[in-house]
Amino acid sequence: MKMTHSAIAFDKALSQSSENSFELQDVTSIVERTQVAPKLLTALLGGTANSVFLETNIFKYDELQDTIQLPSGKRFDEYGSDIQKDKARQLLLEVGSFGLRSNVAPKDYANKRIAGTENTLMNEAYLVARMNGKSSVAWNQFQELAFAQLLVSDSNITLGGPQDVYSYHQDLLGSARPVNFMDLAGVSIDHFQAGAKQRDLLVEDLEKTFNSSDTIIAICSGTYFNARLEIERQEGLSRDLRTGLDLASMAVPTSNFGSASGQFNYQWFDSIDGIRYIRYEASIQGTPLIPAGKAYLIPVGAETFIKQVYAPAQTRQYVNTTAQAMYGWSKEDDRNGVTMWTETNVLPVTVNPQLIRELDMAAS
Q: What's this model's pTM, rounded to 2 decimal places?
């Protein structure tokens, strides 16, 4: 009789049974799963988002719109039309508050073994570290979701809180943000000229807002990216290869763009329309960050584009003081254990909402 063994079985730790010294028991390594924390938008936008630290929870700033006026035709004894004075308006926005609380009590770890070990008992420090890790992931996801909501909904994140919801394009520019239908399935459209037009309009708005940009990118849903990539591939079949990358026959480039998102790299390509297209199919708690069929054209590196406005915590120690980006407290009790709070009071604002151009792959 031929006997075989599996290498996988011998990777397990073996221990003796407390009831039978001749019996071996498997102690299988822990199978642990965690939530993926996407960070692409934070990596691309967080570095240039200006932070404002208030002493109250009201963000007050002035907006001045320069107008252009042409000379008028006149008689030789006239002066011509008067140049109109520009008037500033004051805007008031309220900062919202967000928080998390965790507790580790003795009953949470009494007589309990650390998962994945044979007989190592839990203690308070172990569970506190676990809860702090979960809190850190939660705040990272909050940051990414806040940036996504600025792109997709043109509004501030509230997560069910009592603060006001702002529609920045409507509130600051006086109209709802337009949707630009790109008709990616259209066969009679010059898609490269259509993309270049959108890029030109964004660059024009950069000039109007005294901004500049390192790169113009389109953050795309999977469906938009795939459709746009197919157009690029078909174009490559009909012309000589101009670069070392042939999208029709070679793998699409990938990068994490400095997001440190574990094993996740995001597909991207540079088009001849001057736009870098990035595929972003991430979701948080099952909800995609970028809706199907959509892409959002934005400038990377613009200085007056997004602001993170922080307000102080309303406690005896911090009220009416200069805000911090994050606050944390803890309380200890012999029976109730350790209770920890973390809080941020922040209002993400697109102070120049015209620098987000919404693209739709449909015809209308």
A: 0.83
